[in-house]
Every structure is written in structure tokens, then in C-alpha cells.
Amino acid sequence: MKSLIRNLPIRIKFAFPILLVMSLLLISVYIYFPQQHKKALLKSYTETAIKTAQVFSAAVSFALVQHNFRLLEKSISNLRIENNIQFLILYDENNEQLAVYNPGNLDLPQISSVPDNHISENGHLLVRDMIYSQDGEYLGKVILSYRLDEMYGQLDRDRYATIVFTFSSMLVSFILISFISRRVTSSLRRLRNQMYRAIDEGEYSSNLHITSRDEIGQLATSFNVMMSEIRLRHSRLVNTKKRYQMLNKRLSVMNNMITTFLSNASHSLRTPLTIILGEVELALSKERSVKEYESALKVVEEETRFLSHIVSDLLTLARADSGSLITFRQELSFSELVRTELKHIERLAKKKRIKVVCKIVNECVIVGDPDRLGEMIRNIMENAVKYTYPDKSIYIDLKANDQYMQFSVCDEGIGIDEKELENIFNRFYRTKRSREISGGTGLGLAIAKSIAEAHDGVISVSSEIEKGSCFIIKLPFPEKVLIKD
């Protein structure tokens, strides 16, 4: 029972005791007041009837003393004035009837059956009064029947009014208490619903708008303060979660890159090492001539240089990952760097009968690392010579505006498939056609991109199969640089 009461809604706990008390009070009013009213009316009617009987007794006493029967007859006739008198019986001292007033021809009671003042079975008030002379001599008695119809009618009307008042009061009390309890508990319901939304749906944005300053208003204010703090902490948690997701994504990418890097690096290093080991084992397997030893040493030298080149490229990429690729910066002429590297490229292009077409701005002065920028230019140019068909051309262009300089190298070579373009700057990545045409490590373009980004620049490529590729590098001008035509 106690658990049932504890689990009841607050609205019922609040309204039920009040309704119960009000109901008991109104029922008590309905029971108590009609009874008291009936007693008061009956007392009033009884007093009136007794006074009427006493007045008549005095008149009869005077008439009997005077032996004036006409006066007695007149006194009886005056009873007609009082409509509530039902009948009247006058007895002498020997209990013999002297006179009777019975306009309704009712059955008259026997004198022995009439006690003192009481209500008869027919609901009428019977009053008995003794008649004495002035000397105290007993002359007779009077029995008076007094109608109570008017009293009972008034009691019925009052009872009906009491019933209407009681039920109306109970109805008004129920409506009023229901309204008050609903107003009191509505704020609590809103608070509960808001808490459910916060728990089930993660909704922390809305506040409770309660303007009252009572306990409910204070609770709502505290709840709003709590929700503001939850929103702030939730926002921090969301941002932290996003940062962790981003870091996790980066770590996943780096994990994949490390795995791919180790796989590709081990593959690229294993091939020249296998060749070196094979040549050495072959040379040591039996006695060789000087020329055979020289031939084996030349193979070892070439593969060792290739290994050294791979290790140097890996070291460059490792520095790029650690942010220490650029060790120092100085003001330099990018135009002069291009011309310097161009001399080496022209010798390579001449061997393949490739024509080099240049258009270079006279002086393009920027700030950067000359060694790294030279390496970037060389890698892009060598890549163009390597994959350009003989008797074709390479177009090298350097131009600038007020914000950045643009260096482009376009070839008429094998081109790159559109599906492979997004991967060509990845480490150790080589297209299918490039693997068929020449060797290489697949690190040159990755290094070129790292150097360009280290100088706050970007590198992009466009290509078409069998028509060639075009690499474009844009480097921004820092303050106080010179562009001379």
C-alpha cells in the first residue's frame, strides 16, 4: 500500500486529500445544517402553537368565569384567522368536550391518548394546555393540532437547495483543484519531458520558460543552469570527439602509409641488394679473370649507387614528415635555378632526340632553400625526359604575377591514365606504363610535392594518354621579393 501511494502521480497526491476533505466537509454540511434547521423551525412552530393555545386558554378561562358562552363562541371563531390550526378541542374539568373546532372534519384523538406536546403520526403538532381561573381553580384543558406542512415544505426546499449547493461546491472544488494541480504539475511534466529528451535523444538546446518565483520556478532555473553547463560540456565533448576522430583517421592513414612505405621500401631495397649479393657470390664461387671481377664490381657499384639514391630519397621524405625538410631560407633567383638544372636536362634530352622549348622570366627572386628547390626542378624535368617519346618536345615555362610564380613542365609522352592521377604523388607509386618503360623508385614526385608544400606552394598535374602530361608548381612570393623582366 505504501509503495502504491509513493508511486502515485504528484497531481493525485496533491488533489486527492483536498478533494476528500472538501467532500467530507460538504457532506457534513449537508447532514448537519438541515437537521439543525429542522430543529430550529420545529421549535419556532411549537412556540407559536403553545402561545396560540395559551391565548385561547386565557380567552376560554375568562369566558367560563363570566359564563359568557357567546364570548367563548367568538373566541373559537377567531381560530379561523390562523390557517395552520387544524383542529381544537375544549374539555371541561370532568374531561367532557365543551367545544370543538374541526374545519377539516378530521378524526379527533381521545384525550387519554394525547400526551404533552408531540408530533402525531400524520406529521401534525399536538399541543395540550390547562385552563385555570384567576383563583387557580382548574376549569378544563385545550388540545390544539397545528399543521407542519409549511415547515416540511420549507425543509424540502432547503434540503434541495443544500443538495444543489453541496454538489455544486464539490464540482467547483474539483475543477478548481484540478486546475491548480495541473498548473503546479505542468511545469514538472515539462521538466520531466525535457530530461527525457536530454537522456533519450541527446537534446540539450532548449530551456524551460517558467516565470514564477516559487519552488517550481526555482527548480526550473536550477535546471536551466544545469542544462547550460551540460550544453557547454557536451559541446566540448563533441569537439574533443571530432578531434579524436580526426587524429584517429590521421593515425590510420599514417599506419597505412607506414605499412605501405615499409613494404615498398623493403621491395625497392631488396632488388639491388639481391643483385649485389648475386654478383659477389658469383665472383667468389671460383677463380675469375680481372675483367670478370671488374664487370662484377661495376654491377655492384651501380646497384650501390642506386641504393644510396633510394636511401637519400627516403631521408628527404623522413625530414619532410618531421617538418625539418627546409633547414634554411635565403633570397634566390628561381630563374637561375631553372637555367642551371636545364643544362643537365638538355644533355639527357639530346640523347633521346627530344627538343626542349623554354620560356623563362629573366629574374624571379623568391625566398627558399636552393638545394631543395633545385632538387624539385630536377625531379620534374627528369620525369618529363624519361617518359617523352623520341623526336618529341618538352615545354618549360616560368612566369609570375604580383602574388605567386608558376613553373610548368609539359611533355609529349605516354601520359597518365585518369584513374591513376590521384596516386602519382604517393610514395613508391608507379603507373603501369612507367613500370614497363623504365626503372625507378617512385619517390621523385613525392619528394617534389613535399618540397613545394614546404615552401607553402602547391603542385598539380593534368594528363592525357599518349598525348603527354603537364606538371604545374605555384610558389607564393613572400614580402620584399623582386620580379624583374
Give the termini distance in whole angstroms. Answer: 100 Å
**CATH architecture verdict of the largest domain:** 2-Layer Sandwich
Main structural class: alpha+beta
Per DSSP, the total helix count is 10
Overall mean pLDDT score?
78
Strand content: 15-25%
Main β-sheet: number of strands, strand sense, barrel status? 5 strands, antiparallel
Order of helices and strands: HHHEEEEEHHHEHEEHEEHHEEE
Uncertain residue segments: 480-485
Radius of gyration: 62 Å
**Which CATH first-tier class of the largest domain would you pick?**
Alpha Beta
Walk across the major sheet and give the strand order. Answer: 2-1-5-4-3
Q: What is this structure's SSE topology?
A:
Blueprint lengths: L1 H6 L2 H57 L2 H9 L7 E8 L4 E5 L16 E2 L5 E8 L5 E9 L2 H53 L13 H70 L5 H33 L7 E4 H18 L3 E6 L2 E6 L1 H17 L6 E8 L3 E8 L20 H6 L6 H11 L3 E7 L3 E9 L6 E2 L1
Parallel strand pairs: 7-9
Antiparallel strand pairs: 1-2, 1-5, 3-4, 4-5, 6-8, 8-13, 9-10, 10-12, 11-12
Helix pairs in contact: 2-3, 2-4, 4-5, 5-6, 6-10, 7-8, 8-10
Descriptive account of the structure:
- It contains 10 helices and 13 strands.
- By secondary structure, the chain is α+β, with helices and mostly antiparallel strands.
- It has 3 domains: 2-167, PAS domain (Beta-Lactamase, 2-Layer Sandwich); 204-324, Signal transduction histidine kinase, dimerisation/phosphotransfer (DHp) domain (Helix Hairpins); 327-484, 2-Layer Sandwich (Heat Shock Protein 90).
- Strands 2-1-5-4-3 form a 5-stranded antiparallel sheet. The protein has a 5-stranded mixed sheet with strand order 7-9-10-12-11.
- Helix 2 packs antiparallel against helix 4 and helix 4 packs parallel to helix 5.
- The longest helix is centred in the middle third of the chain and has 70 residues, at 215-284.
- The protein is rod-shaped.
- Residues 480-485 have low confidence and may be disordered.
